[in-house]
Records
---
Amino acid sequence: MIRELRKIWKSCFIGLLWFLALLWPMTGINSDGTLTFARPLEIWLIVVVAAVVIMLIYSANKSGMLAPFTRPVQTAAGGLAGQAARLPIWVWLLVALGLAMFYPVIFTSRPAHDVAINVLIYISLGLGLNIVIGLAGMLDLGYIAFYGVGAYTYALLNVYLGFSFWTALPFAALFAAIAGCIIGYPTLRMRGDYLAIVTLAFGEIVRLILNNWMELTNGPNGVLGIDRPTMLVPTFDDGFGFEVISLRKLYMLYYVALALAVFTMLCVYRLNYSRIGRAWEAIREDETAAELMGVNTFLLKLLAYAMGAVFAGLAGAFFAGRMKFVSPESFTFLESAMVLCMVVLGGMASIPGIILGAAALVLMQEWFREFETYRMLVFGGCMVLMMLFRPAGLIPARRMGRRSEDDE
Amino acid sequence: MEVFIQQCINALTLGGLYALIALGYTMVYGVIQLINFAHGEFFAAGGYIGVLLLGVMTAMGLMESAPWMCLGVSLLLTMLYCAFLAMGVERIAYKPLRKQTRLAALISALGMSIFLSNGMMLARGPLDQPYPLEYSSGGFEFGLITINNLQIVIWVLTAVLLVALNLLVFRSRIGMAMRAVAQDKVMSALVAINTNRIIALTFAIGAGLAAAAGIMVGLYYGSVRYDMGFVPGIKAFAAAVLGGIGNITGAMIGGLIIGAVEVFGAAYISGEYKDVFAFIILIAVLYFKPTGIMGENIDDTRV
């Protein structure tokens, strides 16, 4: 035990020295070529103190000194989890839905609504991407392109042809699905990492086209003046009729986003347990075997792309309607990476996991907004740490049926 | 005709730089089947350290007397720095994940990429850092065609590094060990190859090449920025895939093709869509030849 700890302390010490060696040239040389020592040392000392504190806690925990404190907490948590597991699942769903329904009543501030809408959009995106990655097992690094296609479909149909949100919505889904097929078709022969780079390339191509097609998309300036989603409300002024109102208040948009997210959740849930879902899972596990069992891998893989794209397209149309403005800036690779992170951090193919992942990442961005410049640094670091300590995600997916590796 | 030859010269320069970056991707992929997204950041770090070292030498007054020696020294130091950086990144972010799924390592690499580029932004600020301009002045003129000194330096450096790398990989014991690890890690461990050390070395060599490319790009375009690693990183990765990932000769050819497509596309079709051409060529090649031009050099049974 002591020997193990000494080894860890030693590698920690070497790591810190290595960090200093890397840090000093980056921060210690001024632009005019003079050298400073104060700034790198200051940063380094902060890191050293943090590392030593973490290591002390870790060593104490390993050698059992913290057991009097951690054990009661562990038993209590275990008891709670046991109680929670005994409740039927519909109670949880009801509680979650109730909370979601009354969220705008509980939190009335604008930022709270903004954050909630963002979370819901990302839940839709994450669940859509989950079809491609989690179910069919194809790595897609250009997923945000479909979101962009959806957003621009609504934006252009609305601005040029005056389509309303609800009439444009099917078109957004359709065009996104077509884009999914266009991207999917040539990539289906590829596997693994070739797929990753080709989807990434397609994502960039879509963004560059949006950025450069000045006549249609107004280039980097974006499309302005998109109408908000509308809704038919019954009125009784002169007899019975319907009045079209624009959803101007943020909480109304929240409910549209909630409907979208719940729709996506239901679809993905049903797909997951359908024949198609099983076929996707078979393709993910072993494509050759799946094909031998009579699964039409070509069509189903194309379908996975198209289905994933549909949900991104719907979310994109909503995004355009909510922001009233779209520009290619919103559809960069970083966004794709972000959605991918949500899926992987939450737990692939696990719907509650992805919801949690989306919420966690959006909230993390919000919390670190105060440390604006450090936000992405911490974000990147957290991604690495998550993978190191919980690579299967926050809520790993439970797989259907029994399989041989479970018995070992 | 003059324009065409001039564009060929530019394409060769750019292609050589892409090839240098692509080698890092392809070597790492060949050994541990990981898309090292942080590789573009090694390239950017190389650009930064290069400009800082040149700045130090200017302040010490060495620049006037021996500018090319200064460049050589900064180049070596920068390659060393990035090699250290890459070994550290590998140790922290990739090594513990070797037994996990490949997606976990990929996410970790993405996280590392975001972390490093933002770290550089915090350290050096979000603005462009200008490179000294004196290297790009001077050169040869043949009628309308000009080749400046810097382009020649880039060609020579690229050629030297590529030849050195080929010798290292195909003629030395270390190279043999690297190829063995790429083929089968367990077996190479059984024949007493320290696989961990070989993997770290692969990262270090790849990052060193990327660092050299970083300095050259900085000199060629006149400045570096914290986020400059991203787009060249993707294109270099595209080059690696185009040539057949895991295949060192393929990465060189892929780099040259991507460079040529970009330069000629920008010159003859449309400057705004130059990135699109590179990607379209990539998709087209992969559609008709899914393992890249030279074929991949990895064992297919484990992928």
---
Amino acid sequence: MSILTLLIICPLLTSVLLLLPKSDKGTKSIALIGSIIQIALTGYITFLYQAIRSAGDKSQMLFESNIVWFSTLHINFHTGVDGISLVMMLLTGFVVLAGVLVSWNIKNQVKEFFFFIMLLSTGAFGFFMSLDLFMLFFFLEIAVVPKYMLIGIWGSGKKENNAMKLALMLMAGSAMVFLGIVGIYFASGYFGPHNTWDILELSKIHLPAEIQRVIYVLTFVGFGVFTAMFPFHTWAPDGHSSAPTAASMFLAGISMKLGGYGCLRVATYLMPTAAKELSWIFIILASIAIVYGAFATLMQKDLKYMNAYSSVSHCGFVVLGIAMLTKTAFAGAVMQMVSHGLMTALFFAAIGMIYDRTHTRMSDQLGGMLKQLPFIGTAFIIAGLCSLGLPGFSGFVSEMTIFTGSWEKAGLFYRVATILACASIVITAVYILRAVGKAIWGTVTNKTYLMLTDATWSERAATILLVVGIVIIGVAPFLFIRLIEPDVQYIINRIIL
Amino acid sequence: MMINESLLLLRYEGIIVFMIFVLFVLNLTDFDKKPSRFLNVVNAMLFINFIAGFLPMPEGSAFQGFFRSSGIIALEKNVLNLGILLISLSGYNWVAKSRKAVEYYILLLSSLLGLFVMLSSGHILVLYLGLELSSLPMAALAALNTNSQKSSEAGVKYILSSAFSTGVTLFGISLLYGAVGDLSFQSISQHLQPNALSLMACIFMLSGFAFKVSVVPFHFWTADVYEGAPTSVSNFYAVISKGAGIFVLMTVLYSLFKNITEIWLYTISILAALSMTIGNLFALRQNNFKRFLAFSSIAQVGFVLVGITSASKVGIDSVIYFVIIYLLSNVVLFSVIEAISDKTGKEKISDLKGLYKTNPLFSIVMTIALFSLAGVPPTAGFFGKFFLLTSGMGAGSYILIGITAINLVLSLYNYLRIVKAFFIDKEEAEMPLVKGNWQTSLVLLACGCGILVLTFAGGLYHFIDTLNF
């Protein structure tokens, strides 16, 4: 059994074990221990990965293991990591641990709640390490229904409708992905040595352009639904606003990244010819998402809606980076995924903490939070500054990389898209500073808020964890670039050919 | 061929006939006056029957090719044996109370015998014999609950529509005889020419089987009969009769009409699209759980037909694999609703609101089954549906696959609606804690584990693939 399989088994085992204890405290402890083991394991894998790479191993994937699953249909349980999947797994580890910590105060149906969180974690880890399209799809689907349950049971507001909307839209997205990957499977039989789901084998086959076009659009749009690409973003604001804090963190922090990773690894990597021909469609959609998302955020009073729309805008950067098809832009897109994952998780955590105390998320009803809740207020401000791209935080590094990569593409069309994307930063600054000014700074307007207490130990731990992640990427981006770069090269090599 | 070898080929049918015979004898004594003793004996017999099915089975044909057996046919019979055992166990309480235990089991086994004969037929006459033998007891079964008007209505409805559809099938058979001049499977599959006459024959015969598996537009009886018949009998309709019907339909299409595959492919594609769409759309508005399951089963048959359009060995494998999982999932749903309605008389979806609070175990196992039907991982239904659609997509009918993809979303909505009732909705009426008897618990445990374990069992699919058709 490879060390990667262990990383799937760990959350799965945790999800079963935490059903056993009688007390809620026991359940929470097991969930916490499980997620600490996950993050430790991911860290250890990263360490090993670095060691093997610096020893001069140049193979594309490390820790590969290939177990036959359904031999008749050529389905294998094929796992392996490169730098890109590794940073995504690190992100997953961070966000899951933070999510568990933030949910420490949850009261009703504790077991079920952590069970679903751990199931989501299983899906995310499995997805990022899959080298087999069937397996990838399997784990993608695992991550759909637990979200429905999390929002439906523990959510707030119009939770039933919003949860159903989210589940159906994601299901529709995964149905498109399904069509795409089965298309790849059959096409690989006609134009390659034999039918295969294996991503590494498929990356050596060049399918005819007319087949690539269909599959590229299907898979890119299908994964695009997950990453809330315009015009398939409508599930995101409603879903986020109804979700409990941990689910929001997971949804925006990891789940939307499943889509981005799929767009890169499946759509772009396996269909390079079509990507060159058709990526302009997604550049347009991404530019719309960036600008539209930013303007929509301006209009929001509800902090969760605000962050959800800003996520639509920020995930637009990811799609833009992937669709630009340059090496720097790819690297930027991957960094933006990690950066946005951490940043938005921090944002949702801070909003959740404020909501738990004040029972409102309306920015105009809050005010003076920094005085009453200095720790939570600071967390909120850090997330905001990272979101608007302040140097020193991860947002600046990743957005800057995407802009540089996009600018490498000559041509009026690409330039316009890049300029539009850059311009949206200004709008971001407006809504972030306004929200911070209204909700966090100022004087305490509501007298009942004077009784509020600041963050508990678990909330502090979660916040510090995420802030550390953001700052490390912001201050030492080369650590990440070094991990990602050789693997981005593989993808760009396919495009240049 | 030696006489005992041909008897060995008839082993499955022989055991069933023997059991029916034993039941007749028991009927003469007063053994069935004490229902629990009687039912335990019957269940033990069914269990032995199920186990005996796994003994090695020769392949070949008997009676000049009228009767044949192969690895796939033996497996199909094993699946049906498993189904009948599970249904018998889960119907324990109802049968014990009904005081018609002997009649119930004689009818049930006769119908199963008919299905077995159909599966093994190598000649149209035998096929027709099996069809009739399976249909008539089923009508009687539906009407078994003599106190209920709905049950009698279900019986009448079934017998009338069944008679009509059998007539249509018979007409198709006569056309087929006109086209080929022989009724054995072998000569039909060799000599059938793609012309208008054989097309008509194919369509008329198909409509008879389409009735049996309730494909749209031959589905009108389904919801009423499922609702009216006793729950165990509905379970039999949904699982055994439908499963066997799918197997037979597949055999007929793949062996009898293999010369005109291009022609029936269109017909089946249209039927598949209609079944999925209409089944799912009608299921949206149902409030009676059994009616809901009726429409859900219509939609599921649509998915199966998509797999059948692949017209290849992969299609056979994935259809059988799917039917096994479909059987497990549906048995769970019917068993739970049977246990609940036996105790409280409730079988509406709105009655199930907040079930998780009152009956957590029931709602968890039902959720697993519903997700399996919806094709959500990590349940086995995901694999079943994935393989089915993959093999269907191999045939390259992209419009059909597009419609299927839309239906995947629709069906997810349907099943999530029930899950939502369990977990999210507030309960309206008081629902007491229903404790199933050990038979029900055993069924639920077996099916629930089956649904989860088949996820990892790549071996089963491979095993099906190694069998001869």
